[in-house]
Here is the input.
Amino acid sequence: MKKKIFSLLAVSALLLSACSSGGQTTDSDTANEGSNGNNPLVQKIAVSTAGELSTLDSGQYTDVNSSDMIGQVTEGLYRTDKEGNPELAMAATEPKVSEDGLVYTFEIRDAQWSNGDPVKAEDFEYAFKYVANPVNGSSSINQMDVIKNGSKIRQEEAKPEDLGVKALDDKTLEIALESPIPYLNQVLVGTPFMPKNKAFAEEQGSAYGTSADNFVGNGPFLIEGWDGTNLNWTLVKNPDYWDAENVQLEEIAVQVVKETATGANMFDTGELDFTTLTDTYAQQYQDSEYSHYVSKAMVGYLSPNQRREVTGNVKVRQAIMQAIDKEGFAEKILGDGSKALNGFVPENFAKNPDTGEDFRIENGELLPYDVEAAQVVWEEAKEELGQKEITLELLSADTAAAKKTVEYVQGQLQENLPGLTIKVKSVPLQNRLDFQTKGEFDLVFGTWTPDYADPINFLEFYDSKGGLNTAGYVSESYDQGLADVKVTLAQEPTARWERMKELEKQLILEDTAVLPLYQGAVAYLQSDQLHDLQIFPFSRTVSYRLVYVA
Here is the structure.
């Protein structure tokens, strides 16, 4: 039997009242036709997201859940097509490129913001320079290194106005690069490169993006009912979106569902049309006709605070890295298609430009699970520290997946490293991010999903001056290596590839600055009347732009 799109009236206590007209077909229903041209069903669905929406500001987000929502309501120069490739969005035509490959000139298409203002080239210039300005504290600041003077601005060796992006007029945007980048269109799909309505954002100041009322978008959907803290809101079709004729959904009720069991139950009873699965539920639904499993370039990792005495000891970090049975965790606890990961760059993500060999396979297994080796280096670490008993706090978000992860890590470390006690601290995502930004942690569990398919997008995570490096890892040689990859070797693909392999080994084998646990996958339940859902292997997770009900 087909799973019907559920009437939202049944869950009005959970979802916004704006969503109360349901998606189940009745004789009196009226609806737009779906993309198949013969669709009588109302184009309304209900979906879940695994964590809170922390911001709609593309320059301030730090989590995938927020990035996903920003991607529904905002659109950059490029968007992602059905096949997962970049295609023109706010850029009306492919850019003109200078002979040296350093200057791109874009024509901005006729489009408007949700407050009626036209989308202008200055909206891109303003947004990019906001991210690049160290004063704003954007965790995406290192993403602007690809643009001329981006790295210098980040290191406060140049002024934000020196960033190589300029509005030549209302409809012409010029981007000057630090070095040629053949995959620039992939980069520009990323959330940090979304435009911001300059006039509106300046008027809102620090309140911009903190609620639906303090935000304007230019994407396929508008957001309603989010006050900045509540756990449900609505996405409605943007009638003024430039490509509105190809957007079928009229309304999406979004509910934060942190517990997988709750999401699965809501799906089974028809209250949700899309929800993600984790741990035992991913295994439980493997034979369901509604379940789907998609490999993702997302990495789950532990970040040790190197500003603290114990976790600042490299042998402590190496012991922890080797004391966790990652394969057992991925297979028995997650069970959603995730894999053990012994490196920071995942599999099936990047290939050698000469041989086509996978980066992960070519660079080998770095500090894999080995209890004996872990215990040897652990004893050396305790001797160096002069401590026989050590207690560390492990910080995480309070989502079901995060809590399962840290509980498993806690058990493994206390069992395999004598004298170690792990205290788990699970808090709402925004609180975890706040603690992490302030450096108030010993160990923190997080995930990282890249914006484009190049190893540098993982490696630059630990740039000593980057906004994402909250662990306090500082290495001049590592920073220089990143600069080599981005600039000096930019047009030497073979040498650049070898340098990135060296950097990953330094990051894991030598300095053990990050402790990778697993490469993620997206397991989810989807109504069989919901079509053309886009699940991305990297960057944002999901897009509803092409979805229709039939």
